[in-house]
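Memo to structure team: turn this sequence into structure tokens by end of day. - J.P.
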Amino acid sequence: MSKLEYYNRPLVAFDPNNKDHRAYFHQFLLTRAWGRCPVRFICPDEHGAGGLVDMVQRQLIEYYTKKEFGNEVSAKRVRGVANPPRILVNQNGEKVVDSSEV
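Reply from structure team:
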């Protein structure tokens, strides 16, 4: 084993649930360098050309979104339709446009 391998930082997979990993990424955002990070994060090939930073950002977005909103389905969505059909009326109560016809 070479000295470089001995002193090398350990390889780990980024885990957004790990507070230390989030702190390492925060430090990277401040310094724009991984030099002070005590670990090296693995970036699998399936994450595309964006690389490690894009992978970590996507995982953090998913982590914080689930943390804030959970896995609940939006009440606004009806049968996969974002805006269900509705009938628009004017001030006299007369039908103006059915949004499903638009």
